[in-house]
Amino acid sequence: MHFKIIAAHLAGLLAVASAKDSRTFAVNHFYGKGPLTEGRMDPIISPGTASSHVHAIQGGSNFNLTMENNALLDSSCTSSLVEADKSNYWTPTLYFQDPSNGSFISVPMFYMNVYYFFEPTDDEIKPFPVGLRMVSGNNSLRTPPPGGAANVLDTNAGTIQPVQWTCPRTSYDPPSYPANSDGLYGVGIQDPNNAGAGAGFPDMNCDGYASPLRADIHFPSCYNPQAGVDAYESNMLFPSSKGTTGGKMNCPEGWIHLPHIFYEVYWNTPLFADLWEQGQGWQPFILSSGDRTGYSLHGDFIAGWDEDVLQKIINNCDAGDSGMDKCADAGPINNSADSCNIPNLVPEKIFGVLEKLPGNNPPTGWGQGESASSPSQTASTKSTTSVPPVSQTETEVTTTTVSATDSKSTGWSYLGCYSDNTSTRALTGIQFADLGIGKVTSTGCMEYCNNAGFSLAGTEYAGQCFCGNKLEGSSKLEADKCDMKCEGDASQICGGSSALSVFEKAGTAASKRSSAHFRRHVHGKHS
Ligand SMILES: *[C@@H]1O[C@H](CO)[C@@H](O)[C@H](O)[C@H]1NC(C)=O
Ligand SMILES: *[C@@H]1O[C@H](CO)[C@@H](O)[C@H](O)[C@H]1NC(C)=O
Ligand SMILES: *[C@@H]1O[C@H](CO)[C@@H](O)[C@H](O)[C@H]1NC(C)=O
Ligand SMILES: *[C@@H]1O[C@H](CO)[C@@H](O)[C@H](O)[C@H]1NC(C)=O
Ligand SMILES: *[C@@H]1O[C@H](CO)[C@@H](O)[C@H](O)[C@H]1NC(C)=O
Description:
Keywords: Signal. By secondary structure, the protein is mainly beta. It has helices at about 5-10, 305-315, 400-405, 440-450, 515-525, and strands spanning about 25-30, 35-40, 55-60, 90, 95, 105, 110-120, 135, 165, 190, 195-200, 215-220, 220-225, 235, 255, 260-265, 285, 300, 355, 410-420, 455-460, 465-470, 485, 490-495, 500-505.
């Protein structure tokens, strides 16, 4: 409902009792042992079947693979402290991928909060209609938000950016994200307005007191009743500050302004702090979907509120962080020492040490091919990628051929495909050299390392460049372990999974012997 125009015309005559001049809020807290349930369940995106990835779900116990719109109201219990809230709230879960062997280990949820913000608006804020389905965030994303890492929650302020990761720490020195990270190579981007948050995963352990790594998801608050509660792809919009003052946010005419909900999901990442090296431009956590970037973070919601209770909370409660259960109008609060839990309706192993993510989701994102595996598995599956065998009889590459591509790489030669350990890198002079977004090539990496005064250059995972003067803790691999096309030039090879295409500056040993490989790596030619 949108009373702004009426209010402007009748100012002084008609009080718009429902409009709000300042924000009030109340945090919905959960209780019990872990979330309501975890498993490959998603009645919005994958009704009636196993969903593609594991979710952690909170709220009403009638959560199921298929849900009728009013099914939640009959839940026998809810993991929300407020009994009148039988809604369901869910997000993907988090795994740790052990850098020493590639196994996945489930990261326990620490806890979850859902903020209910009642923002300043000229509209009347109404409760969620029962059965309303919403999804925020995009499960397909593996690249940084185009508008940057900061949240954008106002359709008048640019492209909406609703999700972030927050890394609470006792000190932000060094920062949680490398300065000037472009978010394309192993680590996300810090929010320019908030040292504690960013888009994509950080590369530091989040050691804030009782506050480990946190997934943050804002939901839109404008509902189009014409679209209906089921139409999750089109029924919601973020509000707009257009034409308003005082920080008010309004919905379009004919739409209904609902509470703005915000999920905070804390994951117990400090359990793994000793198992990876921090501040090195990469990190070991991976979403249950196989996303190693964190950009695909998303949340889902089905409303199961007693609408009368929620309307009273909207109108009268500003309990803030002390919790919605402290609102005078919240109704019965469940103080049970028991826990409201239901079984995983897609029975399979999802906790503990796993060799594959449930649903068999391959790791994706950050320069890894669709079939790429863990940082240090030189996966045998990689050799199934179609790479013509390298001819050993290829003719000698000439200096002019090389310089036609890049004069600075003249005088460099291919040394071979070498293993790289993501916790102890083989080339340590410069790690993740910044060659620009999507621009990494083997020739470009050689030029970069040459200019920086190094004698070795190595490319890895299609989009990473390293420089150094010696290879440490690395051994030579089969040639076909280096089989990924460079992001900046598909005719060149840029290493593989935990495999470096290593190049050496002329004048050092062995620079003559691998010219055929060199030619294949920098020109992609096969005879
Ligand atoms: C889920 O739905 C099935 C089929 O309708 C039903 O048998 C089952 O009891 C439901 N599970 C829960 C936890 O409500
Ligand atoms: C990588 O290095 C770490 C630390 O030195 C070591 O524990 C681990 O076994 C190594 N992994 C591989 C695959 O060599
Ligand atoms: C990888 O290491 C973890 C933790 O050290 C261990 O639990 C797991 O069994 C190992 N996986 C393999 C395949 O050895
Ligand atoms: C989600 O992201 C993918 C990949 O960038 C894009 O193609 C798609 O349009 C996005 N979906 C929505 C609903 O924005
Ligand atoms: C309170 O919570 C317990 C544990 O989840 C549950 O068994 C019980 O039914 C709940 N009581 C009410 C009135 O919802």
